[in-house]
Amino acid sequence: MRILIAGLGFIATHVAEVLSSMHEVTVTYRNLNPVxxxxxxxxxxxxxxxxxxxxxxxxxxxxxEVKKSDVVINFIGEISGDEKTLYISNVEVPKTIASxxxxxxxKPIFIHTSGSTYGIxxxxxxxxxxxxxxxxxxxxxxxxxxxxxxxxxxxxGNFPLIIIRPTLVYGKYSAHIQFVTMxxxxxxxxxxxxxxxxxxxxxxxxxxxILRLIEEKPMLLYFYATECExxxxxxxxxxxxxxxxxxxxxxxxxxxxVKSAMPKEIRxxxxxxxxxxxxxxxxKLLGELRFDENEVYQNALFLKELDEKxxxxxx
Length: 315
Fold this sequence. Notes:
Distance between the termini: 29 Å
Structural class: alpha/beta
Protein name: NAD-dependent epimerase/dehydratase domain-containing protein
Domain NAD-dependent epimerase/dehydratase: 3-176
GO molecular function, one term: aldehyde dehydrogenase (NAD+) activity
Helix content: 40-55%
GO cellular component, one term: cytoplasm
InterPro entries: Epimerase_deHydtase, NAD(P)-bd_dom_sf, NAD(P)-dependent_oxidoreduct
Low-confidence stretches: none
CATH class of the largest domain: Alpha Beta
CATH superfamily of the largest domain: NAD(P)-binding Rossmann-like Domain
Radius of gyration: 19 Å
Number of helices: 12
Strand order of the largest sheet: 3-2-1-4-5-7-12
């Protein structure tokens, strides 16, 4: 199959690596910062084709790429910025892709990666009707859900659509702000004991889920992508300190202090700590899923490599 991936972030990089072992993969990017240049190089080594393409301004070229594709996957999105920036990335971009797919004769499968934080905590089940019972609060949450609803309305009756709602995504190539923050503390040998836990999902497992999904080709599906078990935040720090050769020092830190110390992009997401997400579809696709400690270990080494090259930029 020919697969087109929009966006060159760390999740897209992992997924492109997984898919390229079996399919012909093309990844688009708008610009390259130093970290994305590393992603670019790693994917080129895997035989992935990379093209510079702005989804919103290069629509004719996007249309040509969609015509050549059996599957289109959108990984473009923003977690921070003003409301206009969030709306453009989280609504306008997927809307543009979906509209072009609807116009195309080949009608490729559209896989849209979205969010999982929609105002509901505790035990979160997948809703029967898209968006039913959800209560997004922040501009990020609101635009993510609006993006889902827009592509759903365009796709219904026209082409296959899969909406993936990943929980906390980790992986060896992650340079997201939360992982950079953890790396910097682990570098000092600090392991905060906070009582905070999340249900994570590795980027590699997202790639494996997509492999199954493009085989099954459901017409309309939306689900939470998660590994079905909560993992303590301190586990990440323990693995990081081990990878960095540090003797970790456990420091009890109240949740309130953690929340005030975290970057503002992450602070609002901490209210979802401890939330249990419906993992029935994830289990159906991949069976029993386990937290991949080696991916976190390799991530610490990757961040160390970026740090040593003076290009450790949250991406």
